[in-house]
Every structure is written in structure tokens, then in C-alpha cells.
Amino acid sequence: MSDLYQHGTGDVLTERHDNGVLLITINRPDRYNSLTLPMFEEMNQIWADVERDDQTRVVVITGAGKAFCTGMDVAQPDPTPQDALAMLETERKRVATMLRIEKPIISAINGPAVGYGLSTALLADISIAADDAVLIEGHTKVGVTAGDHAALIWPLLVGMAKTKYYVLTSEKLTGAEAERIGLVSLSVPREQVLPRALEVASQLGRGSQQALRFTKRALNAWLTNAVPQHELSSALEILDFAGADYAEARQAFREKRPVDFPSARTAGAPAK
């Protein structure tokens, strides 16, 4: 459509629906909607556009094809230190904007959601997941701190015990299990995910916009009060990008072999 959302890459699509609903689709289905480095900035810009868009009342975000979003595309070249610092600032703005936007955001989690993808899914105000969708926090598996959302929102959603278990182990959850423990709002059969999300969005689009926005503002005070934890975890994640564990994880992925973290070979080793 010819409006402020046209950024020209085709990696993120937008479509207007009735009742002020905006559908955002992450569009790299051949790469399970993983993000290139430029896409992080594009997604940040889209949320800024949503905030200033008078035509949009409710946002639905989903992924093209079989996945929601599987985080950073690890097949791309390693980020430089400058890339990592730019990403830190981009992510700080992205999270702050998602929390500040008063329009309801609904995530339609149609398939795997990992890392950044899970962050976007859970920072939405309402999250609707496929029963069989795979959700993985994932950061510790690639040798970096869980920095883009976990310290901010997981403890509020599921409590500290479940948070530490799933965030430290990066164990998989299904959408059904995520609903059971309170991590997502609803789980439904896969073919119903987007229709249900659009149905809820349309309902909200017809509702009292002032009441909805003021309610979201009040509820999000719980999250904005926790922003310092998020910024600390994000900074630690960026430091990890320069570490040997992250380099080994990326190399192992490319060679399709198990990861052998250097820190696991040295930490706690018997003194000689």
C-alpha cells in the first residue's frame, strides 16, 4: 500500500484491514522469517510508524509461511562491534516503542518463535499461538545473555521459577504448554491463529479507543518499571557477541555439529 509503511525491502509486509486493523507480516519464509541486520532497523522503524499512524487502531503481527520469526539469521556474516552497538540501540528503541504505543498489539504466533521472534510475540498485549508452535527463548544456546525481553517480561508472565528454568535451559515449549503456564494468552489450532487474531483485533478496533489505550498505559507501567533490568540484560548480550562462546556457536551452526563452548571447558576446571 502507498503510505508511510513502504520501506522498500519486501522483507516486512503491511496490510490494512477494516476497523483500523494493521497486519504486519515478517516475510522471509525461506529462512523461517529470521532477521538480517538491516531488518532489525526496519522493524524498529515500523513500530515508530505505528505510533504516529492515525489510521491504525490495532496491530496484528505474524510470520509468512510456517514460522513466526526465528530471531537473527545466523547464516549472515558475523556482526562487527559497530554492528553490535547499533543493534543494542535499535533494540532499546524497539522495546521502548512497543511498550509506549497505546494501540493494542496482537501477535499471531503461527509457528516457531525464537529469540527476537519470541520477544516480539510476548511483548504484544495479546498473544495467540498455534497449539503446536515451538517457542524457544534460545539465547543461552548460542552463548549470549537472554537480553532482548526475558528479564523484562517472563517473570511477570510466569513467575521467577518457570522463567529461570526455560530461560537458562532454552528448553522448547509448545503453544499449548505456553498457554498452560501463562506465557501466551491463547493457543488454538494452527489454521485458526491468524483468523482468531484478526477477529480479536477487529473487536478491539470497534471498541472505545480511549478506554483501551488508557488501560494499556496503566497495565504497561508494570513493564516500564522493569526497563532497567531489560537494558542491563541487553548490554550483557551485546558484550557476549564479542566472546568466544558466541563465535563457536555460529561456527558450529555452519558446520552442522554440536556446540563446544570454550567457557564450558574452562569454568570450574580443577586447579593444577
Automatic annotation (TrEMBL):
It comes from the Bacteria. Signal peptide: none annotated. SUPFAM superfamilies: ClpP/crotonase. It holds the Pfam family ECH_1. Coiled coil: none annotated. Belongs to the enoyl-CoA hydratase/isomerase family. This is Enoyl-CoA hydratase/isomerase family protein.
